[in-house]
């Protein structure tokens, strides 16, 4: 989860932050190198974790029985997307001036503000293009897969302020907790 969350928020902040916001204290080339190193590290962490998850889903019989084919499909799509993202790293490094990052950020900002303009993407290398198409495809698949559970993560903050929860067993013959004086065991 650490790798994928870092990648998600890294893409979110990195692509959607306008250039004028950081150009006073950071050059585009510096931001691109930061994205390469931090994103590459998070990508490798995510690759290891996602590969382990996929292996477990496919080869553990108990988990395989409880997995739906759409679960496997979305995990494979995420794995391919991650590999494509890792493939873009050498291409990004070859554009050390930050030009590729500026083109991609401009495209993403225009998509979010409903002013699409993709003419600058024509000159981009193929891994970027495939990575972007698959990324948009994942956004389309998001509500129809278990990826939608991401939204429940925001609800987990409520656990910090929720009242204490008492859990009682429904099994018959299980004595009440003898260490809790508020709920003494019933005599038999």
The CATH architecture assignment turns out to be Up-down Bundle
CATH superfamily: Transmembrane di-heme cytochromes, Chain C
Distance between the termini: 48 Å
Provide the low-confidence segments as ranges.
none
Please give the domain count: 1
| Oligomeric state of this protein | single chain
Could you state the order of secondary-structure elements as H and E?
HHHHHHHH
Question: What proportion of the residues is helical, as a percent range?
Answer: 55-70%
Could you say which structural class the secondary elements and strand pairing correspond to? Answer: mainly alpha
CATH fold field value: Fumarate Reductase Cytochrome B subunit
Can you tell me the CATH class?
Mainly Alpha
Rg over C-alpha atoms, rounded to the nearest angstrom: 23 Å
- Give the total of beta strands: 0
- Described by the principal axes of the CA atoms, the overall outline is globular
Kindly describe this structure.
The protein has 188 residues and is mainly α. It has a single domain (2-160), classed as Fumarate Reductase Cytochrome B subunit (Up-down Bundle), CATH 1.20.950. It is built from eight helices and no strands. Helix 3 packs across helix 6 and helix 5 (69-94) packs antiparallel against helix 7 (126-141). The longest helix is centred in the first third of the chain and has 32 residues, at 28-59. It is globular. 10% of the residues are buried. The mean pLDDT is 87.
